[in-house]
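Our preliminary data section would be incomplete without showing what the modeling component actually yields. Below, a chain of 120 amino acids is followed by its predicted structure, encoded as C-alpha cells that our downstream tools consume directly.
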Amino acid sequence: MRTVKIKFKSTLAGFLTGAVNGLFGGGGGMVAVPLLKNLLGYSEKRSHATAILVIAPVCAASAVIYIISGYLRADVVIPAAVGAVAGGFIGAKLLGVLPEFIVNIIFIAAMLAAGARMLF
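Predicted structure:
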C-alpha cells in the first residue's frame, strides 16, 4: 500500500510539474522542488537534482510543440541554449559543494525575485 501511495504522489508531482512547464514554457522547477521536498520528503539537494531530471524531458516535449507552432526564433534560442547549458553545468557543480541551507536560501531568493518581477 505504501508503494502505491508513493507512486501516486510521484505521479501527481510529475503531472503538476509538467502542466506548469507546458503552460508557461518553464517554471516547472519552481513547482517540482517544493513538491519533491514537501510531498515526497526529499532533501533539498536531492529535490533540485531530481527536478532537473524530471524537467528535461518535459522541456523537450514542450519545445517540440513550440517549434511546430512556430513560437521559437533560432537567433534567440541558440545563444540562450548555449548559456543554459553552461549555467546548468556550473549550477550542478555548485549544488555539489554548497550546504543545503545555502541552496535553500538561493532558491527562495530566486522564487521571490521571479515573483516580484512578475508583479512589477
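The helical segments are 2-24, 28-39, 44-69, 74-97, 100-119. The chain is about 90% helix and 0% strand. Preliminary results of this kind motivate Aim 1 of the renewal.
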